[in-house]
Queue: 4 jobs
Job 1
Amino acid sequence: MRALFIGGTGTISTAVSRLAIEKGWELALLNRGNRTEMIPEGAKILQADIADTEKVRDLIRDLQFDVVADFIAYVPQHVERDIALFSGKTRQYIFISSASAYQKPLSCFRITESTPLANPYWEYSRNKIACEERLMQEYRTNGFPVTIVRPSHTYSETSIPLGIHGKGSWSVIDRMLKGKPVIIHGDGTSLWTLTHSSDFAKAFLGLMGNPAAIGHPFHITSDEALTWDQIYDRVGDALGVPVKKFHVATDFLIECDPAYEGSIKGDKAVSVIFDNSKIKRIVPDYKATVRFDQGVRLSIQYLLSHPELQVPDPVFDSFCDRVIAAQQKALEFFKTL
């Protein structure tokens, strides 16, 4: 079985690439070759920028694939390009969408693949919705063999999942290690689902080459739901330090920095519990087995053993200090009334 991954070396796709090789897939990665250290042994490299359609067309001119998966398509123009490039050249095209596309706020706390798609707060999510709609139109009209995958918050050994953070995760980890308070949106009790990339990869491989998956959307998540307070406490446990949690209302955070509206109000501030029965019907042996307390220890070990990743973010650090000081000052003023 032959697969082509566009990207293939990111947080989600690296684990999928590794497992595909282990399972005996003939795998080619189409990317610019900037992250060669993440390329699994045995994968073939087609070095090109996917935006250079003429070069890509030349590279794949004599190739046919059982699966093409695009991990870096974000806007409708990207999937329009893929339709033109891969129609008639693959038996299955997998689009990686996002669980953030599900409606905000939710009308029902339990999310299935039939939950409506609508996110007024995040352009990223609206673009993913538009991509899905275009691909399903092509499936219905011309039989384009699309499968849609909606990951939720997926992490790996090279990433630490957090709510409010700066450039990378080190800024928050550094504050924890120094005993400084870290900001958690809301009151820390909303539920969130985190999925280790190795678990995501198992379900994804079960969809690859699976004719029952054509024309369908699937989300792939773990079944573990944690509050944000619990998430941060588990990160602290992995570091061996207590976490000084400082809760800040979501609306106040967005007023302080409007850039957080999409990722917080349009995603992480909403409690999410996923019903994974659909992916389990199509991939009967799928089960997420990496608990967050286990997975995040691997992530912390990786970060602490790679000094080049421990990059300070003074802008974010100052932002946290100013937000915390402003809320404390408001509280002190209220007490004088």
Job 2
Amino acid sequence: MSLSWSDQHHVDLDAPVIRYIPDLRLSDPQATQAVTLRQLLSHTSGLPADEQWPQQVPATRDEIVIEFASMPITAQPGTRFQYCSRCIVLAAYVLERITSQSWEAYTRTHIFAPLGMTMASFGPLGLEQAPDRAQPYRHDLFWAKCPYLGAVSST
């Protein structure tokens, strides 16, 4: 299946991620050649679940991508669900490579704006500044573990 978001950009969800990030390295060379975007997005990449990653999250997406080389593959890609938020960051990194836009800029332009989401933002500051916002159950734990995921909306 191909996903198209303009005449210029196409991504095959079932192609190996290395097609879009040639410098990607996983701890297992076979997995490096096999893991697909669909597997990253469905948490079936074979990369470990969140609780098996270091608690300290790198500050940038580039540093997170480098971290993949040191993490063991804990399942054959495509065979087991293991919730991995860093895999979603890697999928966002693919989008950045293909579109030459940051994930945030792409999301604002192609998702938030068409949906009329005028108060949508990213990260804890956006959440805290939104006048009509959802409250995380444990605000301190959520942002401490997942500061790089933070799209929030108050439409």
Job 3
Amino acid sequence: MNDAHQKLVDQYVEIAKLAGSLAHEIKNPLSTIRLNVELLAEDFSADPEDPLHRRALAKVQVVQRECQRLQDLLDDFLNFVRVRPLKLEPSSLNGQVKEVLEFFRPKAQQARIEIIEFLAADLPTVLLDREAFRGALLNLILNAQQAMPEGGQLVVRTSATIDGVALDLIDSGCGMEPSTMAKMFQAFFSTKKAGSGLGLPTTRKVVEGHGGQIRVQSEVGKGTQFTIRLPIPARLAADPAHHRVDRTP
């Protein structure tokens, strides 16, 4: 890494720290506001027959919803700018996928989403920060759920590649316009009314932090496919003990 590149990295880290500190400072008064608004809501709901109280309560509830939106946005932003070295450990990609799918399965049943698994046996071991990777994967799955409001199918597929492993998430949802695909990884871009626009940028940040790549293909009315490609680090590729341990589909 040359000096100019290192300087840019250092500047980014400093800006991220400052932004994170500012977000934390905002959260403190926001918590006070939320608490007092909740107390106001309790006071105004004491006499639901009074028209004045009903109107006041409706306005207080609007403030409550907006406070929650701010809280969610701050949480997403802090997750996005968090400067934390990834703790990479030899891991089974299939194992991480199975954990996330088991967590999501009850929600999938409620949303009438059929999960179809094609997990290749005997995959090479990869290096993962398991917590960060599970969060990124869950975010993609929740995006797929939102694209299928009437239910549908989610195909989850893993495979070995020439230099690593690949994970495909294919949904039968509404698909995306090319203009949306061009901006989807930009911070704060969202097609959802209440979306923060930080979920997909955070996911890409995590994948790239693993030395991987994330790609998307989509067609309106037919669905979307996200593909994550992860490399096999040289030290694992050279070690037969780690090269192939994931033998369960």
Job 4
Amino acid sequence: MTNERDLRIDFLRGLALLFIFIDHIPDNGLAHFTLRNFGFADAAEVFVLLAGFSAVLAYQRSFEREGFRAGAARVMDRVRDIYLWHLALVAFCAIGLTVAAVWFENPMYSHNIGVHVFGESPAAASFFAATLINQPNMLNILPLYIVLMLVWVPFVLWLLPRRPWQMLFVSASLWLIANLLQLNLPSQQAPQGWGVQPLRLAAPDYRWRARRAL
């Protein structure tokens, strides 16, 4: 295992980001040619899958050479950084969009993203943001990474070299159970739970695609 970046992963992640950008543009003809129309998963799910490959390349060497504790410590350092940047981003968006809503006298600036809850109940919204339960719209990707890296990455890097087939079985079982039982993590603003959630990330939402096609 080397410390060099795998340019193939970087290329595919860049392509996935391009597809995600195209898919978020309303009435965009190019969206008919992105991955979500042909594959089992859409570009966002592929991007997270590739992030998993990158995590293995980044941390597996520490787990193998320095042991589980040292490897897990490196992962936790990364989780801490992502968590702090997520809170900073939420605070920046909440303040900026609230100011825009007042300045332009248009509450949709804050309501569309979901940061209006900070003005309605600041203490509760801040607490839920700190516990990742309050996820404003478009700010739900970093919480996904936090949960996956906090719980899943150390477990995978511990079990994978010892029992690779068991690791595959556990992963597939978690995905299947989460889909069958509709398991999700709680969300303050979405009754159905996290919009981008780690338990069944790879599951294609055929109902959503059907609605788009109508």
